[in-house]
Amino acid sequence: MHVSFQLSILKTLAGQPHGRRVSKSLGSIGYRYSSGREWPARMKRIAGRGPNSVSSAEADAEVGCWIVTEEGREYLETLDQLDRYAVVG
Q1: CB neighbours (10 Å) of residue 51?
Q2: Nearest-CA neighbor of 72 among 86, 83, 56?
Q3: What digits encode the pLDDT tens for the residues 19-50?
Q4: All residues at 6 or more sequence positions from 15 whose CB lies less than 8 Å from its CB, including other chains
Q5: How far, CA to CA in Å, does 2 sit from each of 6, 7, 44, 68?
Q6: CA–CA dist 87, 15 (Å, integer)
Q7: 81 vs 10, 26, 46, 78, CA distance in Å?
Q8: In 1-69, which ranges are continuous DSSP H helix?
Q9: What is the pLDDT of residue 5?
């Protein structure tokens, strides 16, 4: 799976109550990719500032749902900070 798409999944999970989302409803991420260039370009730019893969420790699976872990939230915050610094700096 492409890193920017993995990042989209983490960001989607992090934006949900309790950081969890039913696996079937993750298909809505496709909407973000098909609704314009802004989201895919942002995810690609942010993903380019981090490692080449998203760790399995950053999201956890339970029966029927995915959950972002604390490590996943920290990873997202680090990438967002790097991106803000690069855009401003």
Answers
A1: 10
A2: 56
A3: 888 877 666 677 777 777 888 888 888 877 77
A4: none
A5: 6, 9, 9, 18
A6: 23
A7: 16, 25, 10, 5
A8: 3-14, 29-34, 38-47
A9: 80
Mean per-residue pLDDT of the chain: 79
Q: What is the pTM of this model?
A: 0.69
62 or 67: whose pLDDT is higher? 67
Distance CA 61, CA 38 (A): 29
Contact by Cβ (8 Å): 9, 59: yes
Count how many Cα atoms sit within 13 Å of the Cα of residue 8 in the half-sphere of its side chain.
Answer: 21
pLDDT category at 53 given cuts 50, 70, 90 is low
